[in-house]
Amino acid sequence: MRAWVPGESLWTLDLFLLGNLALVAGMYAWGVARLRRRSLRWSPWRSLSLALGLSLLAIAYLGPFETLSHAYFWAHMAQHLTVMMLAAPFLVLSCPVALAVMATTGSTRRLLISALRSRVGLFLVNPVFTWALFAGTLIISHTTPAMEWVLGDHDAMAFVSRPLYLVAALLFYYPLIGNDMCARRPKPAYRVLSLGLMMIPETMLGAVIFLSPVTLYPTYVATAAALGYDPRFDQNLAGALMWALTMVIDSFWMMLAAVEWWRSEERRTEREERREHAASAMAGGAP
After folding, report:
1. Which of 53, 144, 172, 235 fits 91 for a cystine, CB–CB 3.0-4.6 Å?
2. What's the DSSP call for residue 94?
3. Dist CA 94 CA 45 (whole Å)
């Protein structure tokens, strides 16, 4: 793919991607409107989360990060972090699965629920699988020739790399944050632990890129020579972004999972207290 050169616009008009983002937004709005017609409530925070998620995807793939990512490795890394660690979790928090189930009826709703409870559905939200998929996607794509393949092939980037990054991140965060009708969520402690463990491959990859004594990607070396910048500095900056920012962003999602844990414990305690009070009342009223 041709690299950006100074003087060109930093914005990318990708009609295919723009159409898909508009389609997702339209389907979500249709679902919310359908609930309102049935006098069912839908949290505006969920709708805001969708808007944030789609906006971050647009920033990553239609804005300067997309344009600069073909010339600078740091922009490529910032693009990945935006998609995998910000856009994806916000999309999960918008609860699209719950909206789809609530907005549909009859056989469509039964099909969705069956898919969520199927063996394939349960496997896809298994936290061990989702952790391995997320970490593997991140590491393999940056430590194998796959990186050079994607940088040199528009179709590979558009139809392999982008969907894989987004799907891996959505599956990883889906059972860990929010409450989007996941059929088998891990216990709260495991959710916090899984989010914390993801820091290991992320920071290790960032450290490897930052500390590497040689340049890792020939495409960026050639682009640096054409544009007149230092490829080692560019690579060090990309590694530093992943090394440092992943810890900050992961800590935020861990905090969110911890708050959910605390609230679930509060609700459990309240239920136990109500049962005890009911049992005491029945015992006190017994002859």
Report:
1. 53
2. T
3. 8
CA distance readout (Å), 81 to 78, 105, 272: 5, 37, 42
Condensed to tens digits (0 to 9), the pLDDT of residues 76-101 reads: 999 999 999 999 999 999 999 999 99
Say if CB 128 and CB 140 are below 8 A apart. Answer: no
Q: Quick one: pLDDT band at residue 69, thresholds 50, 70, 90?
A: confident
Whole-number Cα distances in Å, 117 to 103, 134, 169, 172, 187: 19, 22, 21, 17, 18
Contacts of 150 (CB under 8 A, 6+ apart): 141, 156, 157, 160, 161
pLDDT single digits (tens) 2-51: 555 566 667 777 888 999 999 999 999 999 999 999 989 999 999 999 99
56 by Cβ neighbours in 10 Å (0-12 / 13-18 / 19+) ranks as buried
- The structural domains of the chain, with segments of one domain joined by +, span 15-265
